[in-house]
Amino acid sequence: MNGRAAMRWLMAAFYLAAGALHLLSPDAFLPIVPGWVPEPRLTILATGVAEILGAIGLLVPRLRKAAGIGLALYALCVLPANIKHAVDGIAIPQLPASWWYHGPRLAFQPVLIWWALYAGTVIDWPWSGKPRRD
């Protein structure tokens, strides 16, 4: 297994677990949803479905690119909730509440976007200028 494939499987496992958590415990995420988001509980459930579908899509070659783009957009769209979580100091069970958690999490968001695009074979940067299919 090459590095991109390993990253793909790791990302798929992460999003599969995160999606399941959103579906099984949506109420735990309600406090971090910004007030301008309509239907917060439904939005949380929809994000869980999106995470699971994205995880599966990464593992299906013909869906991989769309899944990579979708998960990159997803990571961008949940940034306001992550910011609210950090700035308001909202406690969520099983997650740390300190800036030692929130700071790196927010700083890692662009990496997560890149990772989705790389795992989804949308980009090859920084390793090659020519896209590979794997």
Give a structural overview.
By secondary structure, the chain is mainly alpha-helical. It has 6 helices and no strands. Helix 1 runs antiparallel to helix 3 and helix 4 runs antiparallel to helix 6 (99-119). It is globular and about 40 Å long. The N and C termini lie close together (10 Å). The mean pLDDT is 91.
What proportion of the residues form beta strands (DSSP E)? Answer: under 5%
Number of separate helices: 6
Radius of gyration from the alpha-carbon trace, in angstroms: 15 Å
The biggest sheet, with number of strands, parallel, antiparallel or mixed sense and barrel status, is:
none
- Unreliable runs, pLDDT <50, ≥5 residues? none
Number of strands: 0
The sequence of SSEs as H and E is HHHHHH
Counting structural domains, the number is 1
Q: Based on helices, strands and strand pairing, what is the structural class?
A: mainly alpha
Q: Indicate the percent of residues in helices.
A: 55-70%
Globular, elongated, flat, extended or rod-shaped: what is the shape?
globular
Query: Mean pLDDT score, rounded?
Result: 91
Beginning-to-end CA distance, first to last residue: 10 Å
List the main descriptive attributes of the protein structure presented here.
mainly alpha, globular, 134 residues
